[in-house]
Design brief:
single chain, about 180 residues, alpha/beta, Ribosomal Protein L13p, Chain: A, 3-stranded parallel β-sheet, two-stranded antiparallel ribbon, 5 strands
Length: about 180
């Protein structure tokens, strides 16, 4: 009996080419949006997911100011930070942070869902959040891997034309004799 040898595939970072994805946050619930972004940053939506490698894509979030929260979180959720001096605890309500720096709300939610180690710090740098509809990362998004659907459709049409030209070529001499 022939023995079957199987090898487990492990991805390496040198073979990975991350894409750029744009996500519109207008009307989306904060927590559900953050879990989707964290999953994309980790690369869990890919079949070759490897937990110890930064294999996810870059994510650009637009319209961060229009994110939706449920319940009474606008007035009851607080963000805390400390100045490291005695009595230096500061707290700010969610509605105040959304009014001044809406991108920080999404960044903080996603950062809490990533690993709390060196890998998580590398992954959070791939997140780009913009409060309005326009973002300065259009060149990266349109540079091949993260191109919008219309550009991908145009690129996909070109190989099909090549297949047609291959089919119309003459058959080799030995195939003609059999027919």
């Amino acid at each position: 009996m022939k023995s079957i040898q199987t090898k487990t595939f492990t991805a390496s970072e040198k073979n990975l080419t991350p894409r750029w994805r744009v996500i519109d946050a207008s009307g989306r619930t904060l927590g559900r949006l953050a879990t989707e972004i964290a999953s994309i940053l980790r690369g869990k939506d890919k079949t070759t997911f490897t937990p110890h490698i930064a294999m996810g894509d870059f994510v650009v979030v637009v319209n961060a100011a229009k994110v939706h929260v449920t319940g009474a979180k606008l007035t009851k959720k607080f963000y805390y930070h400390h100045s490291l001096y005695p009595g230096g605890l500061k707290k700010v309500r969610l509605d105040e942070v959304l009014a001044q720096h809406p991108e920080r709300v999404i960044e903080d939610a996603v950062e809490g869902m990533l690993p709390h180690n060196a890998l998580g710090r590398r992954l959070i740098r791939r997140l780009k959040v913009v409060s309005g509809p326009d973002h300065p990362y259009k060149a990266q998004v349109f540079a091949g891997t993260g191109a919008p659907k219309a550009a991908k459709d145009a690129a996909a049409a070109a190989p099909s034309e090549q297949k047609k030209t291959r089919e119309t070529k003459k058959a080799p001499a030995h195939e003609k004799k059999e027919a």
